[in-house]
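Progress against Task 2.4 (sequence-to-structure conversion) is shown through the following example record, which the project officer requested during the mid-term review.
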Amino acid sequence: MGVANAVFNEISLNGGSMDLSGLTVAQLRALQEQVKQALKDREHEELSKAREQILAIAQSAGISLQDLLGGQSRSKSSATKVKVAVRYRHPSDASLQWTGRGRQPKWIQEWVSSGKTLDALRV
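Structure tokens generated for the chain above:
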């Protein structure tokens, strides 16, 4: 990125703003790439510093990294799952039940194919 560095060095700072009007399109693109890389590098540095600070605080408080991270749920889906109520139950065998979601169980299919209604099984 020698061109980008040269372009960056040619830009003069006027009261905190850059005068880009004298740059060619190629120079502006080179500068854009340099800015992207500088942002990536800076974000990585700041993230590393933040991690170090957090670990130092945890260690000074006598908390291990495992304890620090262990109290939180890793997935939102497991925390938001709600048990669905049973909507259908077999009249003679209470262990056969269905929420009404997903594929019909075999016992439901047999019940309906024998000419009986699903409403007869509704809880």
